[in-house]
Every structure is written in structure tokens, then in C-alpha cells.
Amino acid sequence: MLVFDLSAEKVFNPQRHVEKILGLVGEGDVTVACWEPGQCSPNHLHPNATEIYFCFEGGGVMHSPTGSVEVKPGAFVVHPRGELHEYVNGPQRSLLFRVRYGDDMSTRIKDWPTNPEFKAKAEDVAFFAGQ
């Protein structure tokens, strides 16, 4: 059994959101994800893992090709393997609990429009070109 206090584990960074892996369980991991106001994730997917976010405090909007949903305290979002998604944090700090499970936790990043310094990796460009 693993037990964590998310409030004690949170770490914020004004430069980018923080994902802190708390532990490994079977075929996955459990993470605390900390977001400052307005921070955004890249548009990404996990080809071989399901990803679940639970909003503990704060909130924002989760985007996918099939639509956008509000993420608020008590809500959770499930991204099946291979679903492209992007999280945009709202006007206050947010604390999300994340679970990923699957064959591997690799991430493929399609783009990151809110980060002018982002450079796509060649393997990610090739991955999305093949879709």
C-alpha cells in the first residue's frame, strides 16, 4: 500500500507545471501535478498508456480532438491510450492527482503553441506524420 498527502507533496514552479511521480504501482505511476495560473501543457498523447487526472484544487480546461471539458475540484478526466490532449490551467493554482497505467509511459508531443521555445523532437514529428 502507498499513502500520500497531496498537500505535503505539492511543488509549484512559475516557469512550467510540475509533475512529481510519487510512486510506481504495477504497470503505472501515481503523480501530483502542480500548475500555476495560466500554465498549459503541450498537445500530447501516450500511445501505450491510459492517463487519468483528478482535480484536487483549482482547475482549468482539458482539450481533446473530441471537445473541451471544465476541470474543477472533484472532477476527473480519463484519456484512453493514444488520445491527444492539452490542459490549460485557470486563474488560480491547481493541484491535480494523476494516474498513468499501461505498457509504457512514453509521451508523444504534437505541438505546444503556448511555449515559444518548444522544439519538436524528430521522433515525435515522425510519429504524428504517420497518423
Write a concise keyword list for the protein shown above:
mainly beta, 3-stranded antiparallel sheet, 2 helices, about 130 residues, Jelly Rolls, single chain
Written description of the protein model:
- By secondary structure, the protein is mainly β.
- It has one domain: Jelly Rolls (Sandwich), CATH 2.60.120.
- Helices cover 9% and strands 45% of the residues.
- The longest helix is centred in the last third of the chain and has 8 residues, at 122-129.
- The protein is globular.
- The protein starts with 5 loop residues before the first helix and ends with a helix.
Chain oligomer state: single chain
Number of strands: 10
Spatial extent as radius of gyration: 14 Å
Number of helices: 2
- Helices and strands, in N-to-C order? HEEEEEEEEEEH
Mean pLDDT: 96
